[in-house]
Amino acid sequence: MGEELREASGTRAAARTEGAVRIVYGIHALEAAVAGRPVAEIRQALAQPLNISPRAVAVVDGEVVAEGHLLQAGQQLEFVRLAGEKGAPRDTARSGFFPPLP
Amino acid sequence: MLEIRVIGLGGIGCALVPPLARYLYYAGTACRLTLVDGDAFEQRNLPRQAFRAGGNKARVKAEELAQEFPGLSVRAVPEFVTTANAPDLIRSGDVVFLGVDNHRTRRVISDHCERLADILLISGGNEWTDGNVQVYRRQGGRDLSAPLTRFHPEIAAPGDASPAEASCDAAAAAGAPQLLFMNLTVASAMLNAFYAWQQGGLGYGEVYLDILAGRCQPVERRGARG
Lengths: 102, 226
Description:
The complex is a heterodimer of chains A (102) and B (226). Chain A has 102 residues and is α+β, with helices and mostly antiparallel strands. Chain A has a single domain (2-79), classed as Roll (Ubiquitin-like (UB roll)). Helices cover 12% and strands 22% of the residues of chain A. In chain A, strands 1-3-2-6-4-5 form a six-stranded mixed β-sheet, with helices on one face. The longest helix of chain A has 12 residues, at 39-50. Mean pLDDT of chain A is 79; it is low at 9-15 and 90-102. Chain B is an alpha/beta fold and 226 residues long. Chain B has one domain: NAD(P)-binding Rossmann-like Domain (Rossmann fold), CATH 3.40.50. Chain B is built from seven helices and eleven strands. Chain A binds chain B through residues 10, 24, 26-29, 55, 57, 59, 62-64, 78, 80-90, 92, 94-95, 97-98, 101, and chain B through 43, 46-47, 101-103, 106, 123-128, 130-132, 134, 148, 150-155, 160, 168, 171-172, 174-179, 182, 186, 206, 208-210, 213, 215-222, 225-226.
């Protein structure tokens, strides 16, 4: 799968090569020849490299789809990144980051 | 007269309000700016939030803006937003900047906005070095973009507490700090969305931001289902 992915430009026109699907997660936008494959397969392949949350909803061309949805060429698949909430992860050591106030 | 509500005056809200007020004041925009927050400024807020005095955040910032921009209509509502007071605080035709740190309040406000005919809701949030801004627009009773809950299950079914139970600062004190620069980035993106809307060129429903990568990614969010 990795060799089939390449960074796409910011426009959807980039996904119009043969069999290509544009895949978006947060700031990441990739183009991949994955037409005919289910969403679940793409999620599994990209979960680690893009750090996709298991809770991220899959959206194809603006509509929420099931994990078994088969992708078609020219479509855009987005895994919707969770809304920002609380700053740094609680298990991230940040103690001492802020300098003492004068 | 344009009614602009800023809900949440923490790291994002404090970064957003001064340039917003300056822009509105010098543009001569006929508007009223309402600041809404039930929390109070404390010494521990200083690393990310600028304020001249302690006290309720909405009142303190409203007083600051009134002094700096005489003639600009600014009022303070020293309350957290709940299902009970949302109808009084947010009305059809309003522009709402939402800078809270909890999904429960986002859910309350998004649900309320879904019942209004016309609304522009711009909601921002961040983690440590990345963040996002959602834009929910309704016009004439129709969604022009998606409400916050449609693609965000964490907002549709919030598992966190209301701000009355645990504030942003309480979270920070518990070990979840935020980065000032990320607050600034999100606030700027929210203002950019507002300006794009004013100019009739707002074409996205969500934008993602990452300051380490130096990138932003706008995404369309269609309003109509099916």
